[in-house]
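Deliverable D4.2, example record:
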Amino acid sequence: MAKTKPAPADTVVAYLRVSTDEQAESGAGLMAQRTTIEAEADRRGWTIVAWKEDKGASGKSLGGRPALDEALELVESHQAATLVVAKLDRLSRSLVDFAGLMDRARAKQWNLVALDLGIDLSTPAGEFLASVMASAAQWERRIIGQRTREGLAAKKAAGVRLGRPATLSADVRERIRSEANGGSSLAAIARGLNADEVPTAQGGKQWYPSTVKAVLASQELTMA
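Output generated by the structure prediction step:
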């Protein structure tokens, strides 16, 4: 099978997002984002191959945003070389989600640009800033693990039975879902949870890809 040629370096797909309560907010509207990206495209000589807009969509997670899915498909199928946003929070408000997207971009060889913070994975300075944010995301994941362990310890000290039935905290479930939406594999998510010593739903110490898959499946059933 012939290898797909990379897209020309000057081709970009522009992603815009507003939530319902932000549409009238100064600086956050679709037109303001479009104007910012168009100005930068003129300055850099970019060719914008597509505009993708999610209206009334939350930035708390990557899920439930069909336009973002379409934008990612364009860069990952090499129809554009770069995904660009006017502001990082238009792409994601979660550091964990953003770190997952950066890993996905590097693995699948496309570029990610957030104009407000100067993030550009194709430049040394932009990649350094992205690495700093990835470290912050790792800190966020460790804090979630620490809170979970402390919460279990407090319950145990209070005489609360910690055996079956047991459930995962909302923070851990959100972490797993966010990392999966960001493109992390089940094995990678399990390794991260083990590294951060996050207990399983039954208080165990070892996560496996199958364990992570079961958590994701249970969330899908809950949301259905």
